[in-house]
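Homework help board

Subject: predicted structure for assignment chain

Our instructor gave us this sequence and asked us to write out the predicted structure in token form, then describe one feature. I got the tokens but I'm not sure how to describe them. Can anyone check?
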Amino acid sequence: MASGNRQYAKKPQPVASSTPSGYLAPGVVLEPPPGVAYTRVLSGVDRVTSTAVVGIVAAFLLVNIVCPVVRYALVALVYLVRGRPDGSFNAYNTAATAAVYPSTMAASSLALAALIPLTMLLMRFLHHRSPVWLTSVQPGMRWRFLLLAVIVAIVLENAVYWVSDGRTSFHLAPSPGWAGWLVLILIVTPLQTAGEEYLFRGYLTQVLGSFIPNRWASMLVSALLFALAHGTGQDLALFVNRFAFGALMGTLVLLTGGLEASIAAHAVNNVFSYGYAALSAGGVAAAATVTSVTWTTTAWNVLAYVLVALAAWTIGTRLNVARTTPPVQ
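My token output:
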């Protein structure tokens, strides 16, 4: 799919029927208004506020009920396939929560990855939009932009890490089975982070933007929800770290009209965090269950996020990526 602002994927054809009550029939698929920003993709239909409330409740249920149930089912399946190790399932599940086993870390990651198809289903059947509008206003994935964003994120995030902390804190001491850990991390972590991006920077930002006129306000609310979703056990420095990441990536979504750069930055951040952990004494379990960081670490991390955001925004500008939905043709 072309990355420029002048070429667009084939748009879904709207269906004009609705039910007598004024609600759209289940089969209706509507295009967003022409020339609107990413946050306004869900605007332009009747009952947008009531539908948004349903969408917010649905997002809450996805994070707090559906994903945990999916994870629990996958962990139970792994437990049975492995021949019931560690005695009781409760003991095994406790170990799984700490990401002790590669297979159970995969289960947790895939449960979050399930947010991608689930948010797309909400787009299609609750908001009557084609799911392609969730990825970008192009619409759809702009693969060249995504690839370039991954490259700059790898360079800049690692550069900041090695300048700030890696030279002194990283000591090569691979965990047992480190090669398997690295393969697993490379496969499932990008899916996990993409799931989070589709929910928070994508679906929630668009739902909030459908009734909040100020796009920056909807982005900040989404960033706050992202930080809160990581649990009450995190200390203030880690909370600020996550909120700053959400706000900067949300800003990038608004400036580039899509999720590509935020997915790239999030995936690179987590892949290398877990990868370095697998190659050091702490192990992946420590990285996956971190609840506190220093304010110095937060400051360096925010610097990395800012640099990635600036670089990705520059690339998006050079590629002339679409920032608003296509005009009427």
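Reply (TA_rk): Your tokens look well-formed. For the description, you could write something like this. Residues 38-319 form one domain. That's the kind of observation they're looking for.
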